[in-house]
Design goal:
Layout: E1 10-19, E2 22-31, H1 33-47, H2 57-74, H3 88-95, H4 97-114
Antiparallel strand pairs: 1-2
Length: 115
């Protein structure tokens, strides 16, 4: 017989008890996998742009620190690329917000494959 197993996050709570003067312990286990999944989703939303999926400004500081630590460890070089789209608002005004969003997504896709 074959069974399927998969890891889950479990929170264990251990309580000291004394029933009728006899010391003992109570152990309770709770499946918190759905909490962990939601926590990961929120953390991703906090550090990524919802439209493009790229890291946002909140993620920039830790990314720069990680790159700096790697550079110091490996004695190599790194670069930071900042991209500014001139007159982006003109696209929104002339073609609409959907066209502007499409342009941002395409720019993000191209920049990911270029760098």
């Amino acid at each position: 017989m074959k069974s399927l197993t998969y890891p889950i996050c479990v929170e264990l709570r251990l309580l000291s008890t004394a029933a009728s003067g006899t010391p003992g312990f109570t152990l309770a286990a709770f499946d918190v996998s759905h909490w962990r999944e939601r926590e990961n989703e929120l953390l991703h939303a906090l550090n990524h742009d919802a439209l493009t999926g790229l890291d946002n400004a909140a993620a920039l500081e830790s990314a720069v620190e990680a790159a700096q630590a790697e550079v110091e460890h490996t004695r190599t070089q790194t670069a930071l690329v900042l991209l500014d789209l001139d007159d982006y608002s003109r696209i929104n005004r002339a073609l609409g917000y959907d066209a502007g969003d499409d342009m941002l997504r395409e720019t993000a896709r191209r920049s990911q494959h270029t760098v």
